[in-house]
Automatic annotation (TrEMBL):
<dbReference type="InterPro" id="IPR000600">
    <property type="entry name" value="ROK"/>
</dbReference>
<comment type="similarity">
    <text>Belongs to the ROK (NagC/XylR) family.</text>
</comment>
<dbReference type="InterPro" id="IPR043129">
    <property type="entry name" value="ATPase_NBD"/>
</dbReference>
<dbReference type="Pfam" id="PF00480">
    <property type="entry name" value="ROK"/>
</dbReference>
<protein>
    <submittedName>
        <fullName>Glucokinase</fullName>
    </submittedName>
</protein>
Amino acid sequence: MTVAGFDIGGTKIAGVALAAPSAGADRHTLADVLVRSHRPHSIHGPESLVDAVAANVRELGEQLAADGHPPISAVGLALAAWMTRDRETVIWAAHLGVRNAPVKAMLEQRLGLPIVLDNDADGYLLGEDAMGAAADASTSILIALGTGVGGAYVADGRPLIGANGLGAELGHVTIDEEGPRCSCEAYGCLEAFAGGNALAREAAGVPAAVALARGAAGVAAAVALAKEAAAASAPAAPATDVAPRAEHLAAAARAGDAAAIGVMEGAGRAVAAGLRRLLPAFDPEVVVLGGTVMLSCADLLLPVIERELAEHAPLQGVPQPRRLVLAQLGGHAAAIGAAVLAAR
């Protein structure tokens, strides 16, 4: 049996085709991944979503046929979306323009194949649970720093869904009620401190990051400009059409800019504060840290997270072995997780 899995984010679709586990094996491994794909998309609306999935399934099927593999028999989707508990209706996928749409039924009618849906964070951790950073653990949680902060909890290969389909939204754990407003419209969520959008917001007030976004001639030059401005008590750099992002902030921090280092340390402390709340609640064997921001800034964030947890450990009177592990499967983790769901 060959199954397909797709991770549909705001701008791209990552896909994999997965063979049945090898004879005698009780779980999939990376050797079972037959083909991969990665394509941009311009999805907006449920019909557009169905068209894009159908095109990607067809393309993956053609690759499989060319290599002599069996056709696709089921499809799993990991969507950047909130959905109902039965995983049949997408309640809201902001980046895809899909609201209250029966996506499972629409796709099954179009493709004539069984379809399973889950959100992208669940797919991400299911992939890491199947054949990545959490493959040797029975319980794990995920904190994924991307544009926002995703989260998931998996026990014995099954994600926590919750009463309303919104279980393990760990990025929306409150760490400071007086903190910034989050995308969910609450205040002080982990996402509001450590997501890519939050870091971009803070980067706008870091002159070295602003200079890098404007195309300053090298990181050292940008940091030097920032130090000169600070020494002269000059005001912060004015807003620019080229807004700085987390990557500019990280580059400035690596070059020694104090303001950038302070922002990155604040993000690391926020992740640790979230984990202090989550570790006693879930008691996972493994904490998987992933997402584009986390993985590209691990050298800046991970030491802070580990230090903060060591200094301010939850349940201090109870031994709690703790494993913080970086995600291993890269940009196809959620697609692999979606395929594993489809195989079940």
